[in-house]
Amino acid sequence: MPLLVRKSVAVGPFRFNLSKSGLGISAGVKGLRVGTGPRGNYVHMGHGGLYYRKSLKPPQKSSKTHEFDQTANASPSSSQHDWEEGVNALELAPANAEQIVAEINEKLARIILWPFVASLTIAIALLAYDQSGLIAMASALAIGCALTYLAMSHDEVRRSVVILYDLELDARDAFEKFSQEFEKTAACKKAWNIRNTNSTSDWKRNAGAGNLVDRQSASLGFGSPSIIKTNIEPPCIKGGAQDIYFYPDLVLLVQGSKAGAISYTSLKLEWGATIFVETESVPTDSQIIGHTWRYVNKNGNPDRRFNNNYQIPEVRYPTMTLKSSSGLEKVLHLSSVSNTRELSKALDAQTETARRNIHRSEPEAVERIAT
Q1: How far apart are CA 245 and CA 252, in angstroms?
Q2: Which of 3, 21, 321, 348 lies deepest, with the highest CB count within 10 Å?
């Protein structure tokens, strides 16, 4: 997919505008907006071709800069046969953009207000109907709906983190190439997140399988967590203990109401394959390499002691594993993939670009604002 970098991001009544001169912020409704920009605060009014713009008091310049921790924890050991998905995002030490991750966690922890306002509206409307009739209830509902809408807008603003990217040419090219190769992988018909595997000695009653796999559906696509307002669509993997979002400068992990981050330099992508005894429907793009039986003997023949014995397909699934030195270990089974080498190369190029941008003396690659 071509990389789409928008120049503005809306958060409730606010709009963040990115230009070559810097960042501008405005607020209001269509036809009337008040804001601030690199050339000073401004009022912008108009509709249908008639506009008025007037500069106000210049904004205060800030000398504050952001410094990010580049440290990472040691990788934990894992069992050769029994495996469980890596540590949760709470235990991952942010390897980059520590202040952004702290801001995201703070916003995720905030209570959503509008459901309480909506519930209170319904209760008051019912009480008004019992006391004064239909007109009173309609009035209460009208006022309550307006207050609920305002609460929803307020929730969106207070629970949003705005991240605007103004990528340099090398960073843009590397991230676009990675996104394109990721999109090819995401085109597979089915993906599963592997939560854990456990060896079993009861292979006879498990279609000859020596390991039991706990899996759940996963999805590969593009998007950001709902609280993050940004001008790009990052590749993402959803499903399992953590959802993973690949931004140009960091890899963000979100687990429930907590977030963590790892650097590209600590991220490793490994490919493999597994033969899976598929008890569900086989995706149309998968490769069936053989069949077994629900209850099987050592020689591969069906166990005749069971009347309800039936054949089960054996499917070859590519495996995609993401690891980091700070404890991430995410394993995916994909129904098919044809670009393993290309995706790995694109990730390596993205890692190298991110590493160069991290060590620049000035934060040229990205401009970050938290509302």
Answers
A1: 5
A2: 3
Q: What are phi and psi of 33, to 5 degrees?
A: -140, 140
Same domain for 25 and 149, yes or no, is: no
pLDDT tens digits for range 156-172: 878 888 777 877 888 88
Token duo for residue 184: 């090819």
Q: pTM higher than 0.85, yes or no? A: no
Of 141, 124, 185, nearest in space to 340 by CA: 185
Whether residues 49 and 198 fall in one domain: no
pLDDT digits (tens, 9 = 90+) for 181-199: 999 999 999 999 988 765 5
Please report which residue ranges of the chain form alpha helices under DSSP H.
98-108, 114-132, 134-158, 169-186, 340-358
Task: Report which residue type is found at 275.
Answer: I
Going by C-alpha positions, the residue among 314, 276, 259 that lies closest to residue 191 is 276
- CA nearest to 146, candidates 175, 121, 109, 174: 121
Euclidean distance between CA atoms 271 and 367, whole angstroms: 34
Compute the CA torsion angle 182, 184, 185, 191 (nearest 10 deg): 120
Question: By the 8 A CB rule, do 265 and 249 touch?
Answer: no
Are 152 and 168 within one domain? no
Q: How many CB atoms lie within 10 A of CB 165?
A: 22
